[in-house]
Amino acid sequence: MVDMDVFGILINIGTISFAVSGDIVAMEEEYDILGVFVLG
Fold first, then answer.
1. What angle do CA 23, 29, 32 make, to 5 degrees?
2. 9: which of 3, 16, 17, 23 is 20 to 30 A away, CA to CA?
3. DSSP assignment letter at 29
4. Do 40 and 23 contact (CB within 8 A), yes or no?
């Protein structure tokens, strides 16, 4: 039971970090809001 909770937390952290890195790349490339939404 505890292992599944830890695994779920790690999945959420990975998903959030992937979305944030996509947002940073989109802002550095000066994408419009749609590009930021698609990459994020």
1. 70
2. 23
3. T
4. yes
pLDDT tens column, 7-35: 899 999 999 998 888 888 878 888 888 87
**0.70 surpassed by pTM:** no
pLDDT at 15: 92
Q: Which residues contact 34 (CB under 8 A, 6 or more apart)?
A: none
The tokens of 11 are what?
């999945």
Q: What H or E segment, with its residue span, contains residue 28?
A: helix 2-28
The dihedral region occupied by 30, where left means phi > 0, alpha psi between -120 and 50, and beta the remainder, is left
